[in-house]
Design goal:
Helix content of chain B: 10-25%
Oligomer: heterodimer
Number of helices of chain A: 11
Strand order of the largest sheet of chain A: 1-2
Structural class of chain A: mainly alpha
CATH architecture of one domain in chain B: Sandwich
Radius of gyration of chain B: 30 Å
Number of helices of chain B: 11
CATH topology of one domain in chain B: Immunoglobulin-like
Strand order of the largest sheet of chain B: 5-4-7-2-1-13-16-15
Structural class of chain B: alpha+beta
Shape of chain A: globular
Number of strands of chain B: 33
Strand content of chain A: under 5%
Strand content of chain B: 25-35%
Largest sheet of chain B: 8 strands, mixed
Largest sheet of chain A: 2 strands, antiparallel
Distance between the termini of chain B: 74 Å
Number of strands of chain A: 2
Helix content of chain A: over 70%
Largest interface: A-B, 82 and 67 residues
Order of helices and strands of chain A: HHHEHHHEHHHHH
Distance between the termini of chain A: 25 Å
CATH superfamily of one domain in chain B: tricorn interacting facor f3 domain
Chain lengths: 379, 652
């Protein structure tokens, strides 16, 4: 798993709140100890120092008024601090969530442009436009896809390429979101300026990318072993128990590997939030400091493994329900598209609005999960 | 009455007696339909299976009548299991790809005749020494010539005693074994079809070819280990267990082949549907598929009965082979069909239903009409594919192929798409062995025939097509119709245009592509220019003759290709109003004039997708110059949603 499902309304259950937990300095890992180039000492000390001065998180109303309010009220970077676990809440960062949604909207437009241009070129002159390819039966759709293999190949390749590029660049957005969640200013922990969060996100790009590559490779290997093992089990059982029962056993075994892969993804997210948080905290203390990728990466992994050893169940559950909600949202979006079919005009605008609400809600769920992960690694 | 009694009485009624009164919903209630087939080749056989050596020992008697107008001095006998004997068989050496059965069996199969005796009164002639298994220079042993010691006069009958040993291959194209599963098809020495002119329609077993035979009564006793379950053509008339063996006797008249299966892994479910005892044999864990297949038969038996005449047999057996023997699936024999598809296939992907209804449809086009599948495979597979498409659409609607995950794909639309890519390669109406590739065979024989018939149905009226095929299926039941019989029926029931298109589509690689090459629209005005009137020259400018709030224009529709279907042309104005014009499609082009209170925005030929054979549906429309196109906002919207969704899986 490269990233768990994102999204959500930002609602965090009471059981997830970590109010009253005293932050441990030891939670700021490796970079502090191994890299002289990073502001290790200040990064580790700053949260502890401010923690004693920081009261319990303020109310939501306060946050709404002070947190994401007018940019003019945003504190200077030097006034920023790493937030206590109990202060970290996705609902206190609505602007960051909206920025994530806006990023996804912009990316989606670019990614969808090749197929849109192709469809417009072929079907645009039809009296009903591309409604023809949404007709039940699929005559126009099949003839289009079947007759234009060369264009299809170009569109598929360019779309995959665009997805990959934006997926890689998305590490910056992940880092930005985590920086916004993990840092704040003042007693209430107001949101950091967008420019700061973006710079912090950019600074965490390479460590996050490296983590993504490593985690992806591990997940891929586990899944590959699962596919091989389940296939072997299927073949071994089929002669004795029949192919249907053997296939059920195959699915059951594969499901175990898929769960293992998802858990690895959850642990990777714990490392992800640790890395981005530490990068942001370091930049909050010393903006000009450059980070050591390997140091942050090692620190993130150590913190994630440490956290996972004591709380992998809680983390997986917290990720799991959000992932389930996210999948339900996707299903709702797909169903809405199915119901709308080839209708245009107002129905199409309504569908667009609903789909974007789904994307926004998924971004909020994602932020909610990352906030939970931050609280977990911060304890 | 026992099953045996029923079968005997069917045969005793004699050939071509008329069936009972038609049902109220019959497609062709006024057409007479034969109740029974002529008895030409009848087989009384015994078969004993050794499931560990995968062999069948067979023996019995064949009675054969010379139903032609000429005396016959030789027989041709098909020994089709020899197709799997070695790589020199016609089947194995055909350089055909893109179709089923392409792999070399790891266990070869064969049929060895041990005894062949002509019983001529008190005299017995051993025919084995004179049998000619091979032709000079050809090692194929699937098509044997049997010289007779004397001529058989027209109408005379002879009896042959036979004994043979089968070695089943591991499953290759419809027949063989997989573990203890055995599908036993083309397993006995079978006399080739005798045509009316006294010639035999005999042919070696080709990779793409199927079968052709005379009707008769089959009385077959099958002997297997008693923990096996047997499925076979015709009803069980006798069952006994002795010495650790199960012995079943199956008897059925009015059929032209016999197949059976035996396996110790079958689960059995039975249900009487529309007066027919339906049995489903399937592996463990396939309960949902069994139910889906029964659901299919609950729809198909009355549906096909109304369209093509009542299913005349008392039983139907559906065999769902294990997935490791999928090559045995998707095949038809009289009163026995094999289905398929893996256990995990969800509803909405209607492939279980599709294969079941397709194989059941063969009971009509292969079983009851029995055309020469080797010479004219489209008469079975093509017509049956059309019938499958029609039935699936009637049952499942627009998503008759796939209705899953937002996709609504029709069975016939999928066939049409496949058909378009092979239309110029080869003609449909040719022998199975003449096709260059299995892909072309599949796309032309199955898909293009179905798409051609569907196009005719949509262009000339579905009710007419229902009746035409209803007449054809009833009139030629048990009579081995030819392509001309089909075309003549279409001509009589739908019209000469439909028949000409059918002939061109089948025999001449007929094709068609409608397109709009020109669209114009402008404000309406009278004629401008210089006019000599009353001795004076008058110059009239266009603005002087303008007609306020009126627009003129035209659309030029061109028909490319050799098929001529009537089509509709729809004109769309800028105010959203639409009007339609019908063109008979006979000429090569047609100019449609336009006049209206709003400018012409766009036009489309065949707006309802009736011409499924149209080569390029993407050139069927045009927007007038200067008018805004409708664009592709739906693709952009859906594309953005799914792009954001995918992106969310990578990073926010």
């Amino acid at each position: 798993m490269t990233e768990p499902e994102q999204g959500g309304t930002g609602a965090v259950t009471g059981g997830e709140a970590a109010g009253g937990v005293t932050p441990a300095d030891g939670d700021i890992p490796a970079p502090t100890a191994t890299t002289t180039e990073t502001p290790a000492a200040t990064a580790t000390e700053a949260p502890a120092a401010t923690a004693t001065e920081t009261p319990a998180p303020s109310s939501n109303a306060d946050d709404a008024a002070r947190g994401d309010a007018a940019p003019s009220e945003a504190p200077a970077p030097s006034a920023l601090r790493r937030l206590e676990p109990s202060e970290i809440r996705a609902r206190r960062r609505p602007r960051a969530i909206v920025l994530v949604w806006a990023w996804e909207l912009a990316c989606a437009f670019f990614i969808a442009t090749p197929v849109h241009a192709w469809a417009r070129n072929v079907w645009g002159a039809h009296p009903d436009g591309d409604a023809a390819i949404f007709r039940p039966g699929g005559h126009a759709l099949l003839s289009w896809l079947g007759d234009e293999g060369a264009a299809l190949a170009i569109v598929v390749r360019s779309t995959i390429l665009a997805l990959a590029v934006f997926g890689i660049l998305g590490q910056i957005v992940t880092g930005t979101l985590i920086a916004s969640l993990a840092t704040g200013a003042g007693k209430s922990g107001r949101a950091p300026p967008t420019s700061f969060a973006l710079r912090a996100g950019s600074a965490s790009f390479f460590p996050l990318l490296a983590l993504g590559v490593v985690a992806g490779a591990i997940e891929g290997a586990v899944l590959g072993v699962g596919l091989f093992a389940s296939s072997a089990l299927d073949h071994a059982l089929a002669p004795r128990f029949g192919d249907a029962r053997a296939f059920t056993a195959r699915l059951a075994l594969l499901a175990l590997f898929v769960i293992a892969t998802l858990v690895i993804g959850v642990v990777a997210d714990l490392a992800r939030v640790t890395i981005a948080r530490d990068v942001a905290a370091a930049r909050a203390e010393a903006p000009a400091t450059s980070a050591s990728m390997l140091g942050y990466l090692r620190g993130g992994v150590v913190a994630a493994v440490t956290t996972a050893r004591r709380a992998v169940g809680r983390a997986s559950l917290a990720w799991g329900w959000r992932a389930a909600a996210s999948i339900a949202l996707i299903y709702a979006g797909a169903t809405a598209g199915d119901v709308t079919g080839g209708r245009g005009g107002g129905a199409l605008w309504l569908l667009f609005a609903f789909h974007q609400l789904v994307v926004l809600a998924r971004a909020a769920l994602r932020a909610s999960w990352l906030a939970y992960a931050l609280r977990l690694v911060g304890r | 009455m026992t099953f045996l009694g029923a079968a005997t009485s069917l045969a005793a009624d004699g050939p071509l007696a008329l069936a009972g009164p038609p049902g109220a919903d019959d497609a062709a209630p006024d057409v007479e339909m034969a109740a029974h087939a002529p008895n030409v080749a009848s087989y009384t056989l015994r078969a004993k299976l050794d499931p560990t050596r995968h062999t069948v020992h067979g023996e019995g008697t064949i009675t054969w009548r010379n139903a032609s107008s000429k005396a016959v001095s030789e027989l041709w006998m098909h020994l089709y299991l020899n197709a799997f004997k070695n790589q020199s068989s016609v089947f194995m050496r055909a350089p055909i790809g893109g179709f089923r059965g392409g792999h070399i069996p790891s266990e070869w199969g064969s049929i060895d005749l041990k005894r062949l005796v002509l019983v001529d009164g008190e005299t017995r002639h051993d025919l084995l020494p004179t049998i000619e298994l091979r032709r000079p220079g050809d090692e194929d042993e699937t098509d044997a010539r049997v010289p007779l010691p004397r001529e058989v006069a027209p109408g005379a009958e002879i009896a042959l005693e036979v004994e043979w040993d089968d070695k089943l291959p591991n499953i290759v194209e419809r027949t063989g074994y997989d573990g203890s599963f055995h599908m036993v098809g083309q397993w006995f020495p079978k006399i080739a079809k005798l045509e009316a002119d006294g010639s035999f329609a005999h042919f070696p077993f080709h990779h793409l070819g199927e079968f052709y035979a005379d009707y008769g009564t089959y009385d077959v006793t099958i002997d297997v280990p008693d923990d096996f379950i047997v499925g076979a053509t015709g009803p069980v008339t006798e069952t006994r267990r002795e010495g650790g063996r199960l012995v079943e006797r199956h008897v059925q008249g009015d059929i032209h082949d016999f197949a059976w299966t035996a396996w110790d892994g079958y689960r059995v479910k039975k249900e009487t549907i529309h007066g027919v005892d339906v049995t489903v044999l399937a592996p463990a864990g396939y309960d949902d598929h069994v139910e889906r297949e029964l659901e299919t038969m609950r729809f198909a038996l009355p549906h096909y009965g109304a369209r093509y005449g009542k299913y005349p047999y008392p039983v139907l057996t559906l065999v769902h082979p294990p997935v490791t023997a999928s090559e045995a699936g998707g095949m038809e024999y009289p009163t026995l069909i094999t289905t398929g598809q893996p256990s995990w296939l969800p509803r909405g992907l209607w492939f279980v239903e599709g294969v079941t209804i397709h194989e059941f449809g063969h009971q009509y086009f292969y079983g009851l009409l029995a055309s020469n599948e080797d010479a004219w495979p489209f008469l079975d597979e093509g017509l049956n594919s059309y019938a499958e498409n029609e039935a699936m659409a009637a049952w499942k609607g627009a998503g008759s192929g796939i209705h899953f995950a937002g996709l609504t794909i029709g069975d016939v639309e999928a066939q049409a798409e496949r058909a378009r890519h092979f239309g110029h390669d080869e003609k449909i109406a040719q022998g199975a062995g003449a096709f260059a590739t299995g892909s072309a065979y599949g796309a032309l024989v199955y898909s293009r025939t179905a798409a051609l018939l569907e196009t005719i149905a949509r262009a000339y009226g579905k009710a007419k097509m229902d009746r035409a095929l209803g007449v054809y299926a009833r009139r030629f039941r048990f009579r081995h119709p030819t392509p001309n019989d089909l075309i003549d029926t279409i001509r009589a029931e739908i019209g000469p245009g439909a028949a000409d298109n059918l002939r061109a589509g089948l025999f001449d690689k007929g094709w068609v592509d409608y397109t709009i090459t020109q669209t114009s629209s402008h404000p309406s005005h009278g004629a401008a220019g210089m006019f000599d009137r009353d001795g004076k020259r008058e110059t009239i400018s266009p603005d002087k003759t303008a007609r306020p709030n009126r627009y003129d224009g035209s659309v030029l529709v061109v028909r490319r290709g050799t098929l001529r279907f009537p089509v509709e042309i729809e004109l769309v104005a800028t105010d959203g109003s639409r009007s339609r014009v019908t063109w008979d499609g006979e000429a090569e082009s047609f100019r449609v004039p336009y006049s209206g209170s709003a400018a012409l925005r766009s036009a489309i030929v065949d707006p309802d997708d009736r011409i499924l054979l149209d080569e390029h549906p993407q050139n069927n429309f045009a927007t007038a110059p200067g008018q805004a196109t409708a664009g592709a906002p739906r693709v952009l919207e859906r594309g953005m949603f799914w792009a954001a969704t995918l992106l969310g899986g990578l990073a926010p």
